[in-house]
Specification:
The structure holds 2 protein chains of 2 kinds. Chain A is 40% helix and 15% strand. Chain A has 3 domains: 208 residues, NAD(P)-binding Rossmann-like Domain (Rossmann fold); 202 residues, Orthogonal Bundle (Arc Repressor Mutant, subunit A); 105 residues, Structural Genomics Hypothetical 15.5 Kd Protein In mrcA-pckA Intergenic Region, Chain A (Roll), CATH 3.10.290. In chain A, the strands form 4 sheets. An 8-stranded mixed beta sheet of chain A has the order 3-2-1-4-5-6-10-11, sandwiched between helices. In chain A, strands 14-13-15-16-12-17 form a 6-stranded mixed beta sheet, with helices on one face. In chain A, strands 7-19-18 form a 3-stranded antiparallel beta sheet. Chain A contains 23 helices and 19 strands. The C terminus of chain A is likely disordered. In chain A, helix 9 crosses helix 15, helix 11 packs across helix 14 and helix 19 packs across helix 20. In chain B, the strands form 2 sheets. Chain B has an 8-stranded mixed beta sheet, with helices on both faces. The longest helix of chain B has 33 residues. In chain B, helix 2 packs across helix 21, helix 10 runs antiparallel to helix 11 and helix 18 crosses helix 19. By secondary structure, chain B is α/β, with parallel strands linked by helices. Classes of the chains: A alpha/beta, B alpha/beta. The interface between A and B is large, with 93 and 102 residues.
C-alpha cells in the first residue's frame, strides 16, 4: 500500500488536493445542496464547556464557517478531563476565547466570534438572535436554557437543545409553533427538604449539609431575611419571655467575649442544640442530643495529644488541620477545622466583604464540611468525606468526555436536518436519549418530537392561575420569588389593564428607581392585585407575555409554601447563578440546580411520551415490571 | 496517586477503584483515522496509563478534512507519530508512543507485539488481518474493539472471551431490606415497636421498614394461618390491614410503606444473572489458576447454599424517621452486613487455602459481597464464530421484523470488507469506479448472504448504492460520535463497571438510530 514517493512531491500533491476541497467527502455524503447551506449558515453555540468544545470541533470539521460562541465562565482544573481544547496553562482564562483560539490553530480558515459574557445580558437581544440560522445550546443550567428557549421562540430561530450528566445525555430540536418548547414539559424539580427537617430533626448527612450552607449564608453572605437558620444573639432555650417563663443560655455571652469562633460554635452547637433537646415531644423515649462545649473539647484534645506525645507544655494550641478530601475525617479534626476556618472566613469577610457560597471556594467548602460533620455527630448521623460533601453541597454532576462526544455528534446531525429541511423540522428531527448501559438492549433511543403543548404558558397563550396571599405578599416578593425564581422571567413588567404596576430592568432613572422601591415594599392588594384580578406579565427581552389570574389564598396545605401556580405546572426554579442553598420560591429549603447540573429527562418506556408518573405507580409488582422489560424491544419501537 | 482535582467529575462516576484500573491500562490503537483518533482522545482525557498508535500511513489531505488534530504541517509525516504527538498534549499523565509499521505486516510477522496490551482498538484493518488478530487476542484474553465509520454509518464490535462485572450498577436497584425474611435482630426490633404508647409525632416517625416487618408478622398470624400473602387478593388484603394501622393518610412513614409494599412482598430470590454465575462449571472447578472472580463466585455459591440469600449489602434508604431510630436501624443493618461479610470471608479463605492460591485482597472481597446482587458475566462470541458459524436466526428475524433494519448495513459492511480484501481498495473510493463497483459489491454481498443462508434478494440495492456513495470516507461528526460510543465501552470494559454492549452495534446517522445485535 505504501508507495515510496519523494516527500516533497507527495506534500505538494496533497496540498493541492486539499485546496481543491478538503471537504469533498462531506459533499459526497450529505450532498452538494445541503453542504452549501452548511457553508453559508451563521450559527450560535451557547456554552464552551464539555459539550461546547466537542461541538465547536464537530461544526468546523463539518464545514460550518461562521460560528459565534459565548460563555461567561473561565477555565477550571476540573474541566480538563473532558474539555479538550483547554490546557493547564489556560486555567482562569475565558472559555469562549480559548476555545476559539484552539480551533483556529488547527483550522485557520473559519470565522469564529467569541464572546465572554452572559447570554442573558441585554446586549444579546432580539437583533442579536435574529441573525442566526441556528442556535445550539451547550449549557449546564436551567435558567439560561429557559432564557435561550424563549429568545429563540421569540425570533423563530431553530434551537438544538442538549444536556449530559455522567453517562446519560440527550439532544432535541425546538422551533416556534412546530415543536414543543423547552418549557412545555415540567423539568424534574430539585430535591426539597422541609424547614423543620433542616432546623430541628435531621436524619441524614444531606440535612446537615443544607443546614451548614444556610449557616454559611447567614454568617458570611449578604443578609437574607428568608434565612432563619439561627439568630446569633438569641439565647433563649425554653419558654416565652412575654410570659416571663424563659430560660436563657447565659454562657453564650461569655463565649461571645472569647472571639467569633467561640461565639458561633457555642451558639449553633450548644444554645441551639440545648433548645432542641428541651423540646420534650421530639425525644420521648429517646436520648436528646447533647450540646457541645468548645473549651471542653479543646482541652480534651490537648490532654490526649499531650499524653500521647509526652510533650505537654501546658498551653492550648490548635494544631493546623487540613481536611483530607477522600477519607472521613474524625470529629476532632472537624472541630479543629471549624474553629480555624471560621476565623479565616471572618477575616475575609471584614477585608473583602460578603461572598456567596461556592463549591470551588475551598474555605467556604471546608466550613460546610466541618459544620455539617459536627452537626451530624451531634445527631448520631454518619460523618462524610470532603469529596462526598462537595458533591452534595455543590450539586456536582459527573461529567466525562465520552458522553459529550456522543451528544455533540447528535447535535450536528440535527443541525444538518434543520438546514436541509427547515419546513419539516417536527417530522424530520428527533429527540435522542443516551443511556448508560443497554436498556431494552439499546443505548441510544430516538423518539419523535411532539408538537407544542397547548397548555404551555411559554409557547402557547395560556392563562396561569396563581394562588397567593394578596394581603401579605409584597410586590417585591411577587417579582423576585414568584415571577423571577418561579416562572423564570428575566425582567418582568406587570400590567393590570392599562396601568403599569411594576417595571423591571435597570435602565430607569433615579426617580423611577426610588418609586419602584416604594412599590416593592407594598402588599399586592394595594394595587388591586386581589382575588380574581387578572394581570399581564411582559418580558421584553424574552418577548413573552403571560396572563395570570390571581386567586387569594392565605392557607396552604404544605406549610412551607406561600404560592401555587396551576393551569400549567411550571417548574419552580431559582434564577441565581451561584451555588447556594436558599430558602426560596415556595418557602421550602431547596437544593438549587445550578452549575454543571444538566437536566436529563428520562426516556419513555415505550411510545415517545414521558410517563414518569407511571413509573411511580406503587402497585406494579416486580414480576410485572420484569415482564414489561422482557418484551421484545422491536415491537415497541416499530410504529 | 491520581489527580483528584482534575479528575473530580469522573471519579464521581467510577470511583478511585475504576480510575486506578484506567491508569494501569495500556491501550493499542490500530490506525490513526478520525474514528480511531477520536476514540483514543476520549480515553487520554480521563487518563488511561499509556497508549500506542500503530499506523503505517502518512498523513494525507483527506486526514486534514476529518481529523481535528492534524494540520498542514503534518502532511507527509507518519500518521502514527503525529496522532500520538497531538494526543499526548491532552494529558501529561498519559504516556503515548507510536509504531510506524504497517499493522498488516505486524500481524502476519510479529503478532506477539500485541500480547502486552490490556485492550486493542482496531480500525480499518483488512478482513484477513482482522480475523487473525481477533483470534490471537481472544486466545490471550485481551479485549478487542473493532470500530469503523463509513459516511453516515458506524460499526462497533466487542470481542473478548469472558467479561466479568462486579458493579453492574443498574438504574433502579431494589433495596435488599429483608422485610420478607427478617433476621432475628430485625424481627425483635420490630416486635418492640409499641404504637399504642406513642404520641402523634412518634407514631408518624416509625420507619416503614419496622412497620412492614411488624404488621406482616401480625397479619400472617392473625389472618392467614402464618402464611405469607401470595395471591393478589391476599396482598391487597394485607395492604388494607397495613393502612388500617395508620392514624390518618398524612403519616409519611405509612405512605412510604404502602408505596413499596408490593415489591417487598416478593419472596427473596437470587437474580437470574447471578444464579447463572453460581451454577457455572467454573465455580465447582477452582484451582490455583482460577481468577479472583471465580473464587469469589464459588464462595458466594457456598454462602447461598447455606443461607438461601445473598450477603446483605447493609445500606438503608432515606426514610421518614426520627434521628435516633434511623441511626439504630442503620446500625442493625450494618452489623448484619458485617456478619454476612465475615461468613463470606471465611468461605473465601477456606477455598483459597484448599487450592493453595494467592489470597484475595479484603477490599475485593468486600466489594464483591456488597455487590453480589449485581455481578454479571458476558461471554462474547469470537469473530471467527461469527464468520464461520453465522447467527442466521438473529439476522433473519431482524429483517423479517423490519426490512429496513440496521442489520442491512451490517451485511453490506461485511461485503465492503470482503471487497477491500479482494480488490485492495474500498468500493466507490474513486469517482470513476462508482458505477462499476455496484455490481461487484452486489455479487460479493450475494456470496456472503448465501454463506449465512439468507435469501440474496433480501438486502435492497439502496443500501449498496448508499455505501458506495460514501466511498470509504469518514465524516468527522460520525467519527466523533462513534469515538464517543467506543471509548465509553472501553471504559466499561476496563473498569468492570456497568454492562457493556454485546456484541455488534450499528449506528445509522441517516435516521439517528442505533441497534445492537448479538452475532
Amino acid at each position: 500500500m505504501n508507495v515510496v514517493v519523494d516527500t516533497d512531491i507527495y506534500i505538494n500533491r496533497e496540498k493541492e488536493r486539499m485546496t481543491e476541497d478538503k471537504f469533498q467527502h462531506i459533499r459526497d455524503c450529505i450532498g452538494d445542496d445541503v453542504f452549501e447551506k452548511v457553508q453559508k449558515a451563521k450559527v450560535l453555540v451557547v456554552g464552551a464547556g464539555g459539550i461546547g468544545c466537542e461541538l465547536l470541533k464537530n461544526l468546523v470539521l463539518s464545514g460550518f464557517k461562521d460560528i459565534h460562541i459565548i460563555d461567561l465562565d473561565t477555565i477550571d482544573l476540573s474541566n480538563l478531563n473532558r474539555q479538550f481544547l483547554f490546557r493547564k496553562h489556560h486555567i482562569g482564562m475565558s472559555k469562549a476565547k480559548i476555545a476559539r483560539e484552539a480551533v483556529l490553530k488547527y483550522n485557520p480558515d473559519v470565522n469564529i466570534e467569541a464572546h465572554e459574557g452572559d447570554i442573558k445580558n441585554q446586549q444579546y437581544g432580539h437583533q442579536y438572535f435574529q441573525r442566526f440560522d441556528l442556535v445550539m445550546n451547550a449549557l449546564d443550567n436551567l435558567s439560561a436554557r429557559k432564557h435561550v428557549n424563549r429568545m429563540c421562540l421569540s425570533v423563530g430561530v431553530p434551537l438544538v437543545e442538549s444536556g449530559t450528566a455522567g453517562y446519560l445525555g440527550q439532544a432535541t430540536v425546538i422551533l416556534k409553533e412546530k415543536t414543543e418548547c423547552f418549557e412545555c414539559l415540567p423539568k424534574e424539580a430539585p430535591k426539597e427538604f422541609a424547614v423543620c427537617t433542616i432546623r430541628s430533626n435531621p436524619s441524614s448527612p444531606i440535612h446537615c449539609i443544607v443546614w451548614a450552607k444556610m449557616l454559611y449564608g447567614r454568617l458570611f453572605d449578604v443578609a437574607d431575611e428568608n434565612n432563619a437558620v439561627t439568630d446569633m444573639d438569641d439565647n433563649i432555650v425554653e419558654g416565652d419571655p412575654e410570659k416571663g417563663t424563659e430560660v436563657r443560655d447565659t454562657k453564650l455571652e461569655q463565649a461571645k467575649a472569647k472571639g467569633y469562633d467561640h461565639w458561633v460554635f457555642h451558639k449553633v452547637f450548644h444554645t441551639d442544640i440545648d433548645r432542641l433537646a428541651r423540646m420534650k415531644d421530639l425525644w420521648t423515649g429517646k436520648t436528646p442530643p447533647t450540646p457541645l462545649l468548645l473549651d471542653d473539647l479543646l482541652n480534651n484534645y490537648q490532654k490526649n495529644n499531650g499524653n500521647n506525645n509526652n510533650n505537654n507544655n501546658g498551653t492550648i494550641t490548635t494544631k493546623s488541620i487540613a481536611l483530607n478530601s477522600q477519607i472521613v475525617n474524625s470529629f476532632e479534626d472537624n472541630t479543629r477545622a471549624f474553629v480555624e476556618v471560621i476565623k479565616k472566613l471572618k477575616e475575609r469577610l471584614e477585608k473583602d466583604g460578603a461572598k456567596s457560597w461556592d463549591k470551588d471556594d475551598d474555605l467556604a467548602l471546608d466550613f460546610v464540611v466541618a459544620a455539617s460533620n459536627i452537626r451530624s455527630h451531634i445527631f448520631g448521623i454518619p460523618l462524610k468525606s470532603k469529596f462526598d460533601i462537595k458533591q452534595m453541597a455543590g450539586n456536582i454532576v459527573p461529567a466525562i468526555a465520552t458522553t459529550n462526544a456522543i451528544i455533540s455528534g447528535f447535535i450536528v446531525l440535527e443541525a444538518f436536518k434543520i438546514l436541509s429541511s427547515r419546513d419539516q423540522i417536527q417530522e424530520k428531527c428527533k429527540t435522542t436519549f443516551l443511556f448508560k448501559q443497554p436498556s431494552n438492549k439499546r443505548v441510544i433511543y430516538p423518539v419523535s418530537i411532539d408538537q407544542p403543548n397547548k397548555s404551555c404558558y411559554v409557547c402557547s397563550q395560556t392563562v396561569v392561575t396563581l394562588k397567593i396571599d394578596t394581603n401579605t405578599t409584597t410586590i417585591g416578593k411577587l417579582v423576585n420569588e414568584v415571577l423571577k425564581k418561579g416562572l423564570a422571567f428575566h425582567e418582568p413588567m406587570i400590567m393590570k389593564g392599562q396601568s403599569m404596576i411594576y417595571e423591571g430592568g435597570d435602565d430607569l432613572d433615579k426617580e423611577e428607581l426610588d418609586a419602584r422601591k416604594m412599590v416593592e415594599q407594598k402588599p399586592m392588594i394595594t394595587f388591586g392585585l386581589s382575588d380574581n384580578a387578572i394581570i399581564e406579565v411582559h418580558d421584553y427581552l424574552q418577548d413573552i407575555k403571560v396572563s395570570i389570574l390571581i386567586s387569594h389564598c392565605d392557607k396552604f396545605e404544605d406549610q412551607n409554601k406561600f404560592f401555587e401556580v396551576s393551569g400549567k405546572p411550571p417548574q419552580v426554579q431559582s434564577d441565581t447563578t451561584t451555588a447556594a442553598t436558599t430558602t426560596t420560591t415556595d418557602g421550602t429549603v431547596q437544593q438549587e440546580d445550578i452549575d454543571e447540573v444538566e437536566i436529563i429527562e428520562y426516556p419513555p418506556p415505550s411510545d415517545g411520551k414521558l410517563k414518569r408518573k407511571e413509573r411511580e405507580q406503587d402497585d406494579i409488582t416486580v414480576e410485572e415490571e420484569q415482564m414489561q422489560e422482557e418484551q421484545d424491544p422491536h415491537k415497541r419501537t416499530k410504529k | 496517586m491520581t489527580d483528584t482535582e482534575k479528575y473530580d467529575r469522573q471519579l464521581r462516576l467510577w470511583g478511585e477503584d475504576g480510575q486506578a484500573k484506567l491508569e494501569k491500562s495500556h491501550i493499542c490503537l490500530i490506525n490513526g483515522t478520525a474514528t480511531g483518533t477520536e476514540t483514543l482522545k476520549n480515553l487520554v482525557l480521563p487518563g488511561i496509563g499509556a497508549f500506542t498508535v500503530v499506523d503505517g500511513n502518512k498523513v494525507g489531505a483527506s486526514d486534514l478534512g476529518n481529523n481535528f488534530f492534524l494540520d498542514t504541517t503534518c502532511l507527509g509525516h507518519s500518521r502514527a507519530l503525529k496522532v500520538s504527538e497531538y494526543l499526548r498534549e491532552l494529558n501529561d499523565r498519559v504516556k503515548g508512543s507510536s509504531c510506524e509499521e504497517d499493522p498488516v505486516a505486524l500481524i502476519s510477522d510479529k503478532i506477539t507485539f500485541f500480547k502486552d496490551f490490556d485492550l486493542v482498538i482496531a480500525n480499518k484493518l483488512p478482513e484477513q488481518s482482522l480475523i487473525t488478530l481477533a483470534a490471537y487476542l481472544y486466545e490471550n484474553n485481551i479485549p478487542l474493539l473493532i470500530v469503523n465509520s463509513y459516511g453516515y454509518i458506524g460499526y462497533l464490535r466487542i470481542v473478548t472471551p469472558e467479561h466479568q462485572i462486579i458493579e453492574s450498577k443498574p438504574d433502579t436497584p431494589l433495596d435488599d431490606l429483608r422485610i420478607y425474611n427478617p433476621w432475628k435482630e430485625l424481627e425483635v426490633e420490630s416486635d418492640n415497636v409499641d404504637l399504642s404508647n406513642m404520641n402523634a409525632q412518634q407514631h408518624s416517625h416509625v420507619p416503614y421498614i419496622l412497620l412492614l416487618v411488624k404488621f406482616l408478622k401480625e397479619w400472617r398470624n392473625e389472618k392467614n394461618n402464618g402464611k405469607m400473602p401470595e395471591t393478589r387478593a391476599e396482598k391487597d388484603e394485607f395492604k388494607k390491614f397495613f393502612i388500617s394501622k395508620s392514624h390518618n393518610s398524612d403519616e409519611e412513614n405509612f405512605n412510604e410503606g404502602v408505596k413499596g409494599l408490593f415489591k417487598y412482598l416478593q419472596p427473596p430470590r437470587v437474580p437470574s444473572e447471578v444464579e447463572a454465575i453460581l451454577n457455572d462449571p467454573k465455580t465447582s472447578n477452582i484451582n490455583q489458576q482460577s481468577d479472583d472472580f471465580w473464587v469469589l463466585a464459588a464462595a458466594l455459591k457456598q454462602f447461598v447454599d447455606q443461607h438461601k440469600v445473598l450477603p446483605l449489602p447493609g445500606n438503608i434508604p432515606d426514610l421518614t424517621s426520627d434521628t435516633i431510630t434511623y441511626v439504630t436501624l442503620q446500625k442493625l443493618y450494618h452489623d448484619k452486613a458485617n456478619a454476612d461479610l465475615e461468613d463470606f470471608n471465611t468461605k473465601v479463605e477456606s477455598i483459597v487455602s484448599n487450592t493453595n492460591r494467592q489470597p484475595i485482597p479484603s477490599d475485593s472481597i468486600k466489594k464483591f459481597a456488597k455487590n453480589s446482587r449485581f455481578i454479571n458475566i458476558i461471554r462474547y462470541r469470537s469473530l471467527n464464530d461469527e464468520y464461520t458459524i453465522p447467527n442466521t436466526s438473529v439476522i433473519q428475524s431482524e429483517i423479517e421484523m423490519d426490512n429496513n433494519s440496521n442489520v442491512n448495513f451490517y451485511l453490506v459492511l461485511r461485503a465492503v470488507e470482503k471487497f477491500n480484501q479482494t480488490h485492495n481498495r474500498y468500493p466507490g473510493a474513486s469517482d470513476e469506479d462508482v458505477d462499476s463497483d455496484v455490481p461487484l459489491l452486489k455479487s460479493i454481498l450475494a456470496t456472503i448472504l448465501s454463506e449465512i443462508s439468507i435469501s440474496s434478494t433480501i438486502v435492497k440495492d439502496d443500501y449498496i448504492t448508499e455505501i458506495i456513495r460514501y466511498g470509504n470516507s469518514e465524516l468527522h461528526n460520525i467519527a466523533s460520535l462513534m469515538g464517543g460510543i467506543t471509548s465509553q465501552e472501553v471504559i466499561k470494559l476496563i473498569t468492570h463497571q456497568y454492562v457493556p454492549l454485546n456484541n455488534t452495534f450499528i449506528f445509522n446517522g441517516i435516521n439517528s438510530t442505533a441497534t445492537p445485535f448479538k452475532l
